[in-house]
């Protein structure tokens, strides 16, 4: 069965738009779990514009499901410019202290609106390899955010990571436009085949929604999807618990 990990970034973004604790990130995490979510994902960035470092500690102290922290491992410490918001300790320092079940390394820049590409391991492999080894030494399952590129996926396997997370925006865009969908989907099928050949576990995420998820869920070997933006939008429309249930059904669960 494919695990659904709910990304809480947009819940935190709504909270941060005001000087308030509402909506409460921990409360919404529990609501997702009570509704059947298999895990919780957060992506803390140095500017703390949505999930903050303190949220990560708060969640780690209450979650009874898999906790996945994702982010750029080279993001260093940053002083907070907002009263009442603690400083950002740096991504790797945060993960070292919390030790989540899974850490997904993502090559996004501090100024990016959202993640928009996977690792280029020809360029960055020598830097990423010791990070993977360190995380594994701490008992943290490691996943690398990757494009559906067979050559890059093979390089990921050589670094020793347990999983990769396929960046699915190209699939979501093709599905929405109904242009070249079969060809794009075939790229992800091939990527999944290569991952299986290399002994890699397979996660996926980015712009997956209730419309495009059922087809993507047929990808062989898919273990986990992390979904935040679309699920939050659907929660506004139908409620959080029904939205989580709807995404589980889209994954083929009763």
Overview of the structural elements:
It is a single chain. Helix content is 44%, strand content 16%. The protein has 11 helices and 8 strands. Strand 3, helix 4 and strand 4 form a beta-alpha-beta unit. The mean pLDDT is 95. The chain has one domain: Aldolase class I (TIM Barrel). It has an 8-stranded parallel beta barrel with strand order 1-2-3-4-5-6-7-8, surrounded by 7 helices. With 254 residues, the chain is of the alpha/beta class.
Helical run tally: 11
Order of helices and strands: EHHEHEHEHEHEHHEHEHH
Unreliable stretches: none
Write down the overall geometry.
globular
CATH architecture: Alpha-Beta Barrel
Please report the total strand number as a whole number. 8
Roughly how many Å is the radius of gyration? 17 Å
CATH superfamily: Aldolase class I
Number of structural domains: 1
CATH fold-type name: TIM Barrel
Q: Calculate the terminal CA-CA distance, rounded to whole Å.
A: 11 Å
Which characteristics define this entry?
eight-stranded parallel barrel, alpha/beta, TIM Barrel, 11 helices, 254 residues
In summary, what is this structure?
The chain has 254 residues and is an alpha/beta fold. It is built from 11 helices and 8 strands.
Fold blueprint:
Elements: E1 3-7, H1 9-16, H2 25-34, E2 39-42, H3 53-60, E3 66-71, H4 91-98, E4 102-105, H5 121-137, E5 141-146, H6 150-159, E6 163-167, H7 169-177, H8 181-197, E7 201-205, H9 213-216, E8 222-227, H10 229-238, H11 240-250
Parallel strand pairs: 1-2, 1-8, 2-3, 3-4, 4-5, 5-6, 6-7, 7-8
Helix pairs in contact: 5-6, 6-8, 7-8, 10-11
